[in-house]
Amino acid sequence: MQFNSINFMIFFPIVIAVYFIIPRKLRSIWLLLASYYFYMSWNAKYALLIGFSTIVTYFTARAIEGVDNNDKRLRKEILIAGIVINLAILIIFKYADFAIDTVDAVMNRIGLTGIDYRLNLLLPVGISFYTFQAIGYVIDVYRGETVAETNIIRYALFVSFFPQLVAGPIERSKNLLGQLRKIEEIDLFNAKRVTSGAILMIWGLFLKMVISDRIAILVDNVFDNYRMQGGTALILAAIGFSIQIYCDFNSYSTVAIGAARVMGFSLMENFNSPYFANSIRDFWGRWHISLSTWFRDYLYIPLGGNRKGKLRKHINRMIVFLVSGLWHGANFTFIVWGGIHGLYQTIGELLRPIRDRVNDRIQVNTTCFSYRFGQIIVTDILAVFAWIFFRADTLTDAMRFIKRIFTRFDPWQLFNGGIFELGLDRIEMNILVVALLVLLAVDLMKYLKGKTIDAFLMEQNLWFEWIVIILFILALFIFGEYGPAFDAKQFIYFQF
After folding, report:
1. 328 is catalytic
2. Which residues 6+ apart lie within 8 Å of 125 measured at CB?
3. Would you say 461 and 293 are in contact if contact means Cβ atoms under 8 Å apart?
4. What pLDDT, in 10s, does the model give residues 308-331?
5. Position 485 pLDDT exceeds 70
6. Catalytic entry in 288, 314, 328, 341
7. CA atoms within 13 A on the CB side of 121
8. How far is Cα 392 from Cα 270, in angstroms, rounded to an integer?
9. Residue 387 burial by CB count (10 A; 0-12/13-18/19+): exposed, middle or buried?
10. Which of 254, 265, 113, 124 lies closest to 194, judged by CA?
């Protein structure tokens, strides 16, 4: 069940209506049932996996808390066992065939008989997200940052809460579980909060249906036929994918945050105008915040962070980004994508003293607009380059794609109408440009003022607020990509 589907448009109002009128003590049970129904709408059998993960981490946390704090060895053994069991499920379903394919390729290369057997398991939707959320909870209990939850219904809801279940944000126990423990105290009939959540949901659907799914037509057409395209089309497709994945993933997170807010819950922010970042490090402080902070707190810091010297810090950073790439998918393209971002940060840090000396020597004003604008442009170029590996099917495709950019120079395609033959005609392209200007305005407002679109609209006069809301709704119906002739797109991060 996708957020941009008719099924969800029926499902969500029913869930909210019942949630608002049932006795307070039944709220957790009702949301848990709704969450499992939501998840089972993809594949009912995989509810067993999330149920198993929930039970394992529930009892792991209870066992850790039941051991005397002085018995550190036993506590750590229980923690490791719980983590290994959960990661084993993730590895089997997501990485087993990738590992077999890799070994098979190596064996064939050295002349040995390969491995013919494959598991061919269907990847459960959102398994990486709820697995990391559950593991984070267990680690929090081990560290004493939260108490083990004794109510199995409440904990199961924490793991499976449907707004953010399949594509995040990856919530922390201190935030979401803490709110679930006070679910009976939530004041549901709060018009301001409900309106704020509804605006976020509408904005999120705008990002998905009007921008992401529209630009995906051009991106898919060029990437699938890159051998027939010139450099201009390839550059447009690379930039287009960077916009597509941002709008697609930001859309899911925004709808999730909005849906949760309607019910009285506050989920963590997952995006903060990432393409206004002035460095790759800043980019990762703004992109997929829930994942980047998860890796920081549960992998980078335990590895030693920056506490064991510069060399170890660089190694730890590379490990984190390589693992982050692997988390995104069982393909070497994702690993290389992660490695590129790790190298960006390492090289940037190593070159910083040289850059600072050069700036001082030639008297560059590093506080003015032009310098920061230049930083943003360079950061975006680096991010777009890395996205090529993320989008490509294979490393060979990625390298050939990049090679054609530099060897098939055809800037005249921008002026002879050739760009309107890449999947979007002139009218569709104009719609996309207008929608992107709206996105630019909203992100710029967030970047400069720290104000989200719901906060901005709700501080305006009522007539203005409702005109804008109605215009967005009309845009969804008139310019949104849907209907029997449209190949509906799943949210990109569903595959992770």
Report:
1. yes
2. 39, 42, 43, 46, 166, 494
3. no
4. 888 999 999 999 999 999 999 889
5. no
6. 328
7. 20
8. 25
9. buried
10. 265
